[in-house]
């Protein structure tokens, strides 16, 4: 598949997800209006939708239904959106810019931002617990649990806590990897696995391979993020650039230097791609997308 | 059943739930230690466990398994605990005392309190999505969805948003009821219904009756809470008394006066009890508990 083909697929998928989010979010005409408006503000029209794209690309491995993928993608994206709203709050990263717009607590107020994050998390679980046509109920229950494990104290929220505790400290590579596998990697991994759980069941070998791919890509994504935080400007990122260094946060760049961090991302990417071998041509989209995600940093 | 009998049952059930929470919460020796410690601090050894008690009492309608009830009770109680942690934060009610102890953001810090609430919510969904022995997977998926709907923008979180927006405003009784049905009622109702979903399926008539009971009790609970906020002292409540009036929040007492509010609670209670008729003797515990909850205010 050509790169042009990838861009067309990404645009169409992003639009599909945007429409699905639009439909899944509460109507801002209904009470409580400000909460609903702020939930929409914080979720719609923003971001590259990397997690939804990964879910859809993984869905191609198993010929999954688009509507089901849309629902799963919305759930994962709402977890991501909630984490950004809370992460930007004054007591956390205290950031004013996100996806090129004022952050939620700036556009509204802190209490609203707190409730927006809370309610987006709940809505994610409501969406993923609503029966997906053609998906076995026991399988879907496992999907709910996977999303919860990826998001909670042993996943994303736990990673945030380690991140907070690590400000101003020197972490070694093992500690940094542990933090990032939880903070960013767990939800990236969940997006991939949940997409693949929307279709025909995988064999045990295929599941293991996909899991390996998903874990490596989750880490690669974070390494690339660290590289971009140094190299890109605020306008390109749509969020404040250089803030890791300003906040004295350990990153792959601060740990190993820029060139080495790029090299590490490349190694993770190669390792991830190798794990897709058992899927043959059906993994073409996932390979393209992985290439796109990592190539951002080169 | 005698009242002595009720007290013994309550004490035993509270202890059972305490042990279940203890086992379900993350180990504070594991990283991130402070997050885990603060999650335990905010959940264990506190509160009357009204929602777990309601779930267990409703479980007696359907001869539900105690271990399953324990899991459901933990999930509901973690949602409740998360809401208290976030509600006490400076950007919300800014309270320093909860269950007789410093609130989470006072004992730790605001960032930790934010993450504690987030991670407790996630853990609630992880628990309720873990297969319950003997419960059909489709039924359990419906339980996850029920908990999400009760907690989110159309339930507890939405009620909080309306509460915030109503400070200093005069609400009429319809508006106040709408707020409280969401803020407190939805989760009380969920506790009752989820307990009954752990056992033999109810008939449509029984489900409707139980739902009516649960909704009336949810509202009665809030009216009683408003009464106690005026009548009880801080030591008895274990939280700051008189804070509704201090915060200029509309309550049933401010709307209808103390005696009328008590009378309204009594009417709701009578209406709730009448709805238990189809269950006969199996509803004895639920009746006793309803009596105990409302009688707190007389």
From TrEMBL, chains A, B:
Signal peptide span: none
Keywords for the protein's UniProt record, in alphabetical order: Isoprene biosynthesis, Magnesium, Metal-binding, Transferase
InterPro entries membership: Isoprenoid_synthase_dom_sf, Polyprenyl_synt, Polyprenyl_synt_CS, Prenyl_diphosphate_synthase
Cofactor needs: Mg(2+)
NCBIfam families: FPPsyn
PANTHER family: FARNESYL DIPHOSPHATE SYNTHASE
Family affiliation: Belongs to the FPP/GGPP synthase family.
Name of this protein: (2E,6E)-farnesyl diphosphate synthase
């Amino acid at each position: 598949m050509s790169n042009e083909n990838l861009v067309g697929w990404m645009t169409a998928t992003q639009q599909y997800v945007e429409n699905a989010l639009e439909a899944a979010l509460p109507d801002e005409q209904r009470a409580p209006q400000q909460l609903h408006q702020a939930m929409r503000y914080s979720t719609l029209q923003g971001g590259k939708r990397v997690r939804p794209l990964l879910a859809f690309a993984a869905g191609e491995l198993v010929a999954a239904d688009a509507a089901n993928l849309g629902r799963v993608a919305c759930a994962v994206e709402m977890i991501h959106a909630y984490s950004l709203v809370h992460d930007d709050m004054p007591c956390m990263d205290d950031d004013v810019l996100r996806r090129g717009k004022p952050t939620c607590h700036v556009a509204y107020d802190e209490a609203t931002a707190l409730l927006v994050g809370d309610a987006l998390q709940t809505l994610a679980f409501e969406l993923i617990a609503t029966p997906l046509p053609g998906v076995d109920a026991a399988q879907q229950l496992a999907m709910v649990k996977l999303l919860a494990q990826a998001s909670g104290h042993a996943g994303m929220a736990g990673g945030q806590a380690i991140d907070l505790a690590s400000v101003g400290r020197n972490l070694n590579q093992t500690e940094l990897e542990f933090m990032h596998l939880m903070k960013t990697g767990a939800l990236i991994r969940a997006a991939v696995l949940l997409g693949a759980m929307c279709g025909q069941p995988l064999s045990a070998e295929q599941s293991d391979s996909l899991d390996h791919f998903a874990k490596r890509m989750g880490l690669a994504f974070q390494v690339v993020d660290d590289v971009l935080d140094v190299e890109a400007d605020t306008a390109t990122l749509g969020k404040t650039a250089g803030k890791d260094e300003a906040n004295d946060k350990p990153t792959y760049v601060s740990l190993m230097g820029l060139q080495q961090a790029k090299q590490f991302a490349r190694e993770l990417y190669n390792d991830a791609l190798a794990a897709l071998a058992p899927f043959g041509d059906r993994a073409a989209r996932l390979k393209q997308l992985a290439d796109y995600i990592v190539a951002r940093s080169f």
